[in-house]
Amino acid sequence: SSDQALLDSRDGGNRFYLAHRNTGDKWLWGYGTYGTFDGFTPGEKCYVDASFAVGEQTITVCDGGPDGTVVGSYAGTSTTSIDPCRSLYLFCCNQSGGTLDKKYWGKARVYWLQLFQDGEMVRDFKPCLKYGQAALYDDVSKTIFYPEGDPLGYDNSVAASPDEVAYVDYIESDGFSHLDTQVAANSPTRATG
């Protein structure tokens, strides 16, 4: 297997990886430097709660949902302020430099995603369809965020008229699409989903 970014941004060694699958089926965290921990099982539904702030960085991965069994975690105390000067991408790493601006394409399903900065919710993403295209509806900005690249897959048990927003159970990436959350990758940032 290879690295797969799920919610990442990077500028050289300035990493901000809130959720990342590492080669060898491990979770990878990145706050400036990076490291790994066990607990990644391909194909399993899990819940990730990651929070990066100066002086305190934590990631907890649970199987099934927020109340599931903890399968892996990380805690750090770096006092460095990390800011790669770009936004967080879902399903790939927003990386600097020409043809390398997108890297580590990820394959995953997203059932929901919330992003917080300075303790305030800035994104409350819900999977949806509009005009037959899978996307994420943000309940904070009241905006639909569409992917770039291949179309996203979705729970196709939902039928809706093309011009309405229809909520679906999940969206998924085939490894060739990404979505710009338009949330800056800097501390303090927290992601749950």
Descriptive notes:
By secondary structure, this protein is mainly beta. The chain has strands at 4-11, 14-22, 26-37, 46-53, 56-63, 70-76, 87-90, 93-95, 102-103, 109-110, 113-117, 120-130, 133-138, 143-145, 148-149, 153-154, 166-167, 171-172, 177-184, 189-192. It has no helices and 20 strands. It is globular, with a radius of gyration of 16 Å. Strands 4, 5, 6, 11, 12, 13, 14, 17 and 20 form a 9-stranded antiparallel β-sheet that branches.
Question: Which labels suit this protein?
Answer:
nine-stranded antiparallel sheet; 193 residues; five-stranded mixed sheet
Kindly, what is the distance between the CA atoms of the first and last residues, rounded to a whole number of angstroms?
23 Å
**Helix count, DSSP H or I runs of 4 or more residues:** 0
Classify the secondary structure makeup into a structural class: mainly beta
Mean pLDDT: 83
Low-confidence stretches: none
Largest sheet: 9 strands, antiparallel
Oligomer: single chain
| Total DSSP E strands | 20
SSE series: EEEEEEEEEEEEEEEEEEEE
Broad shape: globular
Quote the beta fraction. over 45%
What can be said about this structure in brief?
The protein has about 190 residues and is an all-beta fold.
Topology:
Layout lengths: L3 E8 L2 E9 L3 E12 L8 E8 L2 E8 L6 E7 L10 E4 L2 E3 L6 E2 L5 E2 L2 E5 L2 E11 L2 E6 L4 E3 L2 E2 L3 E2 L11 E2 L3 E2 L4 E8 L4 E4 L1
Parallel strand pairs: 1-8
Antiparallel strand pairs: 1-2, 2-3, 4-5, 4-20, 5-6, 7-19, 8-9, 10-18, 11-12, 11-20, 12-13, 12-17, 13-14, 15-19, 16-18
